[in-house]
Every structure is written in C-alpha cells, then in structure tokens.
Amino acid sequence: MKFFIPEDLSNIKSGKHKFLRQLKDALLDYGLVFKKSNPDIVLHLGRGYREFIGKSKTICRLDGLEFNIKKSYKKQNKKAMKAIEHSDAVVFQNQFCAEAYFKFLKIDRNILHACILNGAFLKDKTRDESFHIVANCKWRPHKRLDDIISCFLMARDRGFPLDLIITGDVKKKIKNKNIRYLGWLSGKKLDRVLSRSLFGIHLAWIDWCPNSVVEYICNNKPVIYSNSGGTKYVVKKNGVSIDDVDWNFDPLDLYNPPKINREKVVDAMFYLLNRKVEIDNSHIDISNIAQKYKKFFEEVLSNE
C-alpha cells in the first residue's frame, strides 16, 4: 500500500508534524510505501489534498475546531468543513474530538471515521534521578500558566523540594530562583529535560489531544492534568485528574478559563512526590497507533 502526507514533515517546531513524521516511520515499518506519485491513501490536515481528489482515497486527520467567540470561529471552521466534504473519511484524535465535530459543526455521524490518538516512540523505562517538574506547552491564556506557577509556589511554601522547568515561549516571566525558563526545546534536549523530571503538569482548559502530554507519558512520566476536553483519553491512569468545567459544545470565551482548584493541584503534586506511578503507555505507542491507521487505511480502500 502506498500512502502520502502532503505536509512538511521536517517541521520540528510543530507537535502535529512531529507526530506525523513518527507515524510515517512507523507505517514504513509495517511495510507501507511513502510516495507522492499515485498513492493509494492521502492522509492530510485539510490542505494539500486537492490534487489527489478522484485519484487517491483522501483521509482528513482533524485537529481541534475553533469555538472561541473572540475569534472568527465560523470563518475558520469553513475550511475544516470543506476538507471533510472533499475527503473519503476522517480521523478524529479521540472521542471528545468526534463529539465536538458532531455536535458543534453538525457533521454527519455516518461519515466513515475512526478515533485514533496521537502517539510517539516510547522511551526506555530507566529512571534518572528527579530534579524538577515540567510544564511544556505552546502557551496561550487557556493553558493556565499563571495557575501552574501559583500552584508550584504554594507547594514550595509547604516544602515541595523540586524546581519547576517551563519550556516554550513565555511572554510574562515570574522571577523565582526555583523556576527556570528554557524556551522552546525539541529532540534530545527535550528528552533530557523530561528524563530528569518527576512529572509533567498540564492544566489547559478544553484541550484536544495535547502532544506535550503524549510526550510526558511516552517518557514514562505521570501527569497532573485538568479533566476537560480530550486530555483524559491520553492520560488514562497515568496521572492525577483535576476537576474542570467541560465544554457544552456552545461558543465561548476560551481565553477566559474558569478558576481551577489550586489546592487540589498542590495536593496532587505532593501525591506524586511521595508515590511511584507505574506508567502504561501502550495506548500511545506509535507502533500501535500506526497499526490502527493501517487498519483504517485498509477499511477506507475497501469502502466503495
């Protein structure tokens, strides 16, 4: 079977491109052939697929849709709708993503589709000494960096011994001797930071299938996470859930998230400090994810 992904897979600053690059490699391991010329399957992100319509089976792998009232969400979602209409099938990142498209954009539930998580290559389970915790993200207001920092400082006041490392671009930095800002990291540099962390923290409001959380768990690190959106499908039992207000599938002000219970977050930090969590990350092992994509490719090709 020949497949093609019309994206720049050398883009190292994009989480979804990193995922697609690893997916491509894992599919090659299963014997598929990556080729632009006359592919059987074109897996796309809503762009670069038009030249293949009528020649190949096109599958749209959908990111999160837009519902922020502070943005032109209707205009932005039209592109996704067109991509869906022009495709033979779609892939949602998890069941929450699927329900969002079914309920918010009212797409046909009978469309040929699959729910397949993002994944990554698993890291060795050898445990390094833990020196810090990590918040790794593309920071926007709904990612709640202020809450993460406040919870960390509360925990430090109560005897939490580790430092906080924040990666990604941060505009407003709170100066503290126990907080380090490392900027954007990837590859071995990010792996090194994660390998020496005790856990990750991800308190985003209504996230879809965050690749940063995938990276924590594939690096055998538990996560403190808010349970709104699709993050719970990534984490499963590999962390501590913090109650959050979930989306009711109506437009809202995404960049004005509700308050999160900081005391619960601090309790979770001490819980993970004092308890070893056995990580089960097989559900996001890129080899298993690729196998699901291969099976769905075969289903799409057999569908007339």
Walkthrough of the structure:
The chain is of the alpha/beta class. It folds into 2 domains: 2-120 and 285-302, Glycogen Phosphorylase B (Rossmann fold); 132-281, Rossmann fold, CATH 3.40.50.2000. Helix content is 34%, strand content 16%. The protein has helices at 15-29, 73-85, 95-104, 145-157, 187-195, 211-218, 231-235, 262-274, 286-302, and strands at 2-4, 33-34, 41-44, 57-61, 89-92, 113-115, 132-136, 163-167, 179-183, 197-202, 223-226, 239-242. The strands form 2 sheets. A 6-stranded parallel beta sheet has the order 2-1-3-4-5-6. Helix 4 packs across helix 8.
Largest sheet: 6 strands, parallel
* Overall tally of structural domains: 2
The name of the CATH topology of the largest domain is Rossmann fold
What is the percent of helical residues?
Answer: 25-40%
Describe the global form.
globular
Give unreliable regions as ranges: none
- What value does the average pLDDT take? 96
User: CATH first level of the largest domain: which class?
Assistant: Alpha Beta
* Beta fraction: 15-25%
> What is the number of helices?
9
- The run of helices and strands is EHEEEHEHEEHEEHEHEHEHH
Annotation keywords:
304 residues, alpha/beta, Rossmann fold, 6-stranded parallel beta sheet, 12 strands, 16% strand
